[in-house]
Amino acid sequence: MIEFQKVTKRYKDNLVIDDLSFKIEKGDLVVLIGPSGCGKTTTLKMINKLIKTSSGKIMVDGKDISKEDTIELRRNIGYVIQQTGLFPHMTVGENIALVPNLKKWSQDKIKERTIELLEMVGMDPEEYIDRYPAELSGGQQQRIGVARAFAVNPDVILMDEPFSALDPITRSQLQDELYHLQQELKKTIVFVTHDMDEALKLGDKVAIMKDGKLLQYDKPEQLLKNPSQGFVEEFIGKNRIWNQPEFIKAEDIMIANPVVISAARTVLQGIETMKSNKVDSLLVVNKKKVLEGIVTFKDLRKSPDRSIKIANIMERDLISINAADSILDAMNKMQEYGVAYIPVTDDEGRLVGLITRSSLLAVLSSQYIHEEVVASE
C-alpha cells in the first residue's frame, strides 16, 4: 500500500533520512518510533508531501506520489496531529465537514457523514455538533481530530503523536478506541510516537529509527523477543517482554519433546517407559502425533492386568493450549482446572510441547534472578 524506495532527505549538508526502504501493507497500523531527531515525523510528512524527498520514491497504492497532484493527494489522506489542528472559529460539525466541502459533497451527505463520525468516536451529535473547540476537553478535541481524518473515508491516515499532550487516563482511553476502530475499519495508518508502550499497544508492525536510518521493522512480539543488538535492545528495554506477558507464547516456555506413548501400548510398557524416562505421566499420541489423552503412574498401578492397552485406561478429556497462546493463557487454565501441567498443541492438534508448574516456575524465577543481578550491578 505504501512503499519507501531508497528515500533520502537532506537539508543542505544535513542528512535527515538516509536511504530509507520499507513497505506498509494495506490495512496495517505501522508505528514509527525513535529518539527525538531520528526522522520519524519527517518520514510521516513525506507521505502526504508536506516535506518533499531529496531522492528515492514513495509509492502509495502503486503510484509514485511525486507525480500525483499534491492537493488531491492530501485530500485523500487523513491527517491527525498532536495539537488537533481544529479551526477555533468553526463548530465541531464544520471542522469535520471541511474536506467533504472541498470535495463538493452535497450538504445532506455531509451532515449524514458528520453524524456518523461523531457516533463513531463516541460523541453525541446533538450535544456536540454545534459546539466550538474551546468548549471541549483535550480528549474531546482529539476525538474530533480523528473523526475529521476519517471524514472522506480515506485509505491512508497519518497520525503524528496525536495523544502525547493528553493526560495518561484519556490517552489510554483513546489508544483503546483507536485500536478497536482499526480492528473494525482496517485503514492503513502510519502513527508516530516516542512512547514504546504506545507503539507495542497499537502497532501491527513497529519501525525503530535512529539518525534517519531504519534499524528494525517487525511485529511487536518479534521486537520484544528478538531485538537487534545494540541501540534497539537498549531502546526497547532488555526485560520489557516480561512487562508484556501477552507476547510470551506457550512455545517460548514449553518443554519440547515431552515423553509420549501410543494408545496401542500395554500397561507394562507404559510403566517401563515411565521408569526409563523418570516421569510419572505419559502423553498419548497417534502416529501423526495428534494428542489423544494422558495416562499417569497412578492409572497404571490401578490395573492388575499389565497386558491391558493404554487406550482402555487413559484420560481422554484433556485440557490443552495452542502454541500461539500466551503464558497468561497457560497460567489461567492451569489455575482454573487445578492441573499441574498442560500440553501444548499446534493448529492441527499435534503435540509440540508441555508446560508444567515446575517448568513455569523455573522460567519465572530465572527472570527474577536475572533482574536481581541487573539491579545489583
Class from secondary-structure proportions: alpha/beta
> Uncertain segments of ≥5 residues (pLDDT<50)?
368-377
CATH architecture of the largest domain: 3-Layer(aba) Sandwich
Order of strands, widest sheet? 6-7-8-3-9-10
> What is the residue-averaged pLDDT?
88
Supply Rg.
28 Å
Shape: elongated
State the end-to-end distance: 47 Å
Instruction: Note the main sheet.
Output: 6 strands, mixed
> How many domains would you count in the coordinates?
2
| CATH class categorisation of the largest domain | Alpha Beta
- The CATH topology of the largest domain comes to Rossmann fold
Q: Percentage of helical residues?
A: 25-40%
DSSP E strands, number:
17
